[in-house]
Amino acid sequence: MEPTLDTYKLSCELFGHSLDVRAVAAGSVTPEGQIILSGSRDKSTKLWKPIGNEYIESLTLKDHKNFISYIYFHTAEQWICTASNDATICIYKQDGFLPLLTLKGHESTVCALSEGLKPRSLISGSWDKTARVWTIGETGEATTVSLKGHEAAVWAVATLKT
Question: Which UniProt keywords apply (predicted)?
Fold first, then answer.
């Protein structure tokens, strides 16, 4: 049976950002349910934990200097990755939610993120007409390769497993 509009219903609303929400992602699954991440023009990322049939704001991350444009939950590494109009990517390790590192290299808004093919890697797309492949070392150092040649912003990135 195909889903219809009648199949879906609003289950809850999340209030907490002071400006419009620009990005939403599903986070890790806990015994209570799946975490939700939201990013806003207010420069913050919020983590929402399920409690019964509701979600409560459990953490606010404020490490970007401009609006949040994309959020990606890197399942293999358990990283929360946030992209911003400030041209940076912040990576947080889920077990403490402290910034693991801030990736710098794009010249404009980072608007897309995806898991890379190799362990501890990430791919980003930007308004600067480039995509980047990032590799994060065990000690937190980052290396990047810029993929140039696009004639417009790179709005989406993905990897194909072989």
Answer: Cytoplasm, Repeat, WD repeat
CB atoms within 10 A of CB 9: 6
Angstrom CA distances, 105 to 51, 66, 127, 132, 144, stand at 39, 16, 12, 8, 8
Whole-angstrom distance, CA of residue 57 vs CA of residue 60:
8
Average confidence (pLDDT) over 65-93 = 96
Measured distance CA(108)–CA(155) in Å, rounded: 12
HSE, side-chain direction, 13 A CA sphere, residue 130? 15
**Tens-place pLDDT, residues 3-41:** 788 888 888 899 999 999 999 999 888 888 899 999 999
pLDDT at 66: 98
pTM, whole model, 2 decimals? 0.92
Contact 147, 130 (CB under 8 A): yes
Tell me how crowded residue 16 is: count the other CB atoms within 10 A of its CB. 15
